[in-house]
Specification:
The chain contains 8 helices and 15 strands. The strands form 4 sheets. Strands 1, 2, 5, 12, 13 and 14 form a 6-stranded mixed sheet that branches. It starts with 12 loop residues before the first strand and ends in a 10-residue tail after the last strand. With 335 residues, the protein is of the alpha+beta class.
Length: 335
């Protein structure tokens, strides 16, 4: 592969160093890989199976076989079929000659530009994920609740004296298991909710004798028997460029529980998958760059291709591998 030359002919070159910087970009607090494990795919679009498990739930009461007779034959697993399309998502940034010449150590315009576009693309994916998984209408009706209004659940969780968040979460986990026979192992608890739970008497009673008695994701995992708990505390600007800056949390007062397998696969049940169409060599994204003399600039571009799909669905195409709590805090909560 040719080495990039900032004063060259304008040919596009994949920059392995910048690609590695993009891959190593910190993603703490992002829920993407937790809720949508990556399934590499060989084609940009194709069909995939939707897990619903119905065929495997019927006990074999007709499997007796007499000597010399044929075994009773059953039909194969009639799993539902859907399709994915790994849309390309890309951003680019111009690094001007003036910026490069005026940059002081330790500033590196190429690295800074790569991290900027990586951050923007990652946040775009997180926004799409949130819109998909925080919509109650995407779940089986038994697998979504609003504390304080839904039967079988306690009051909103910032009602410290009487709230029962642990009981509510355990009830939700049992409901996932009842509908899918799968034990949820992932949780997304927004920063605002986690902050409120630190003052919850229900939690205080359970952790007061722990060594540090501080509510952390690790402690939540231990209390609930989860493999992973993510606490997203990032936000985004909801205003248009040029307008007064308006910041808000992406994950606000929601909590999500889900099951995802340790090894994702096209026929493996899961809450969701990211179908990623890579660029060869095992790369799920690339950073390339080229010279544009007419602009006296070098252009750095990030490219990635994916589709986000809920795959553990019932016969009505509603999720049965996750549980969504909405409005778990009251309007009186300051945060």
């Amino acid at each position: 592969m040719a080495v990039y030359n900032p004063s060259g002919s304008g040919n596009v070159h994949v920059d392995v160093v910048l690609t590695n910087i993009s891959v190593a970009w910190p993603n703490e607090g992002l829920v993407g890989e937790t809720l949508f494990p990556v399934v590499p795919v060989a084609k940009q679009s194709n069909k995939y199976y939707i897990y619903n498990g119905r065929e495997g739930w019927y006990p074999a009461l007709d499997d007796s076989r007499a000597p010399g007779a044929e075994a009773n034959e059953i039909t194969g697993m009639a799993m539902s079929i859907d399709t994915y399309y790994a849309q390309e998502h890309a951003l680019q940034l111009a690094i001007t000659d003036e910026e490069r010449e005026n940059a002081d150590v330790p500033l590196n315009p190429d690295v800074d530009g790569t991290e900027m576009i990586t951050s923007r693309v990652a946040l775009g994916k997180e926004y799409r994920i949130y819109q998909k998984v925080a919509t109650a209408g995407n779940y089986n009706a038994a697998l979504t609740a609003v504390p304080g209004t839904t039967s079988g659940f306690g009051p909103q969780w910032d009602n410290s004296a009487s709230a029962t968040p642990i009981k509510d979460i355990r009830t939700a986990m049992r409901l996932i298991h009842k509908n899918s026979f799968l034990q949820p192992n992932q949780a997304v608890i927004s920063y605002k909710v986690m902050s409120a739970l630190e003052d919850s008497q229900d939690l205080i009673n359970r952790i007061q004798y722990v060594e540090r008695a501080i509510l952390t994701p690790d402690l939540v995992e231990s209390l609930l028997g989860l493999e992973n708990c993510v606490v997203p505390g990032f936000g985004y600007a909801s205003n248009n460029p040029g307008q007064t800056l308006s910041l808000q949390y992406l994950w606000n007062i929601e909590v999500l529980l889900a099951f995802n397998p340790p090894r994702p696969g096209l026929k493996t049940p899961a809450f969701g998958y990211e179908f990623a169409w890579g660029f060869g060599g095992g790369m799920d994204r690339i950073v390339d760059r080229w010279r544009e003399e007419r602009r006296a600039s070098d252009i750095v571009r990030l490219r990635t291709r994916y589709d986000l799909k809920l795959v553990g669905l019932d016969v009505n195409s509603l999720s049965i591998c996750g549980f969504l709590f909405t409005s778990v805090l009251s309007g009186a909560f300051v945060g």
